[in-house]
Amino acid sequence: MNxxxxxxxxxxxxxxxxxxxxxxxxxxxxxxxxxxGMPVGWGCEKGQEAQAAIRDVLAHLSAWEARMxxxxxxxxxxxxxxxxxxxxxxxxxxxxxxxxxxTLSLETVLQTYQDTFVSLLTTLESIDEPTLLYMNGGGLIxxxxxxxxxxxxxxMRPYVRRTGDKGVLSHDL
Length: 173
Known about the structure:
It is globular, with a radius of gyration of 16 Å. Helix content is 64%, strand content 2%. The model has no long low-confidence stretch (mean pLDDT 90). The chain has a two-stranded antiparallel ribbon. Helix 3 packs across helix 4 and helix 3 packs parallel to helix 5.
């Protein structure tokens, strides 16, 4: 993956891909958001595919954004990691998130999805360009934002096509 070469390019990619994800979410009903039907590979034995709901994917994205923000705070402000889950290996973290997401209400998941994104943008906008690009040198920001949104869209789009585009409904984004 080619990494953005400017702060503006990075922020534009993040906003553009998040908007695409939001637009896809506007095509589903509350019921579709909660139905399992997308193979994601979390929380199962090797070679098996867990069936996730859209809400699980949104909770996953929010948790990874929160994890990235925690690592940025650690690097920039020397704030210690306060959530021990953030130190877990990727597979363990994903499996844990999958189990945790199933205990959260859809309302909580959607609110966290929105709040975390606002916090992410606020944080990234506050970092000067050289520092931001340095922090993204290994893809920390790119992989946990616009690249992750693209992954989510690839997972969700076939499910939405298969279950039907229900149009804009009562959930707020």
